[in-house]
Specification:
By secondary structure, the chain is mainly alpha-helical. It has one domain (about 1-35, about 45-140). It is about 70% helix and about 5% strand. The protein has 4 helices and 2 strands. It has helices at about 1-30, 45-80, 85-110, 115-135; strands at about 150, 160. The chain has a two-stranded antiparallel sheet. Helix 1 packs antiparallel against helix 4 (about 115-135).
Length: about 160
């Protein structure tokens, strides 16, 4: 049981990391636009990839900073309650995106309606990515029990599984 929990924590952490990167990629595309993320004339492909990677990495760092504590509580609650529904994760991600901008706006007072809409969509995308990687199996680690290699038939005779 402890080993299953340990594996689940690792899967949830990795899935959260990938979900934050996916949400950050969408956020960068939504804020900067697709035209601004095209390679500049004469720019090498590696330079372009590093530039876009830095944009996404910076946004992912800020997003993780402002959303990790509430998201951790949601992940723990989903595991405890065995929530596996797509819509539940989608709605929770949207709320987490709005909450992250609300926390940012409380300190900086710069967020407008467009920032909230982009953050809500980014949170929903991140939640869908998390659901696809880990959320759809939420709480299943508790369902696994240790079974004997021999199982009794209806007539009482043992057989291999």
């Amino acid at each position: 049981m402890i080993a299953n929990l340990f594996v689940r924590v690792i899967v949830a952490g990795f899935s959260y990391f990938i979900a934050v990167l996916g949400a950050a990629a969408f956020f960068v595309l939504a804020v900067v636009g697709l035209d601004a993320i095209q390679p500049h004339p004469g720019e090498l492909m590696i330079e372009f990839m590093v530039r876009v990677g830095l944009y996404i990495g910076l946004v992912a760092t800020v997003a993780a900073r402002f959303s990790s504590a509430p998201v951790l509580l949601v992940i723990v609650a989903a595991e405890a309650l065995r929530l596996r529904g797509f819509v539940a994760y989608l709605a929770t991600g949207a709320v987490m995106g709005a909450l992250a901008v609300f926390i940012w706006d409380a300190a900086h007072h710069t967020a407008g309606q467009q920032e909230y809409v982009i953050a809500i969509a980014s949170g929903a995308i991140g939640a869908v990515i998390y659901w696809a990687l880990a959320g759809r199996n939420s709480g299943k680690w508790r369902d696994r029990t240790q079974r004997s290699p021999l199982v009794a038939n209806d007539d009482g005779a043992n057989r291999d599984i």
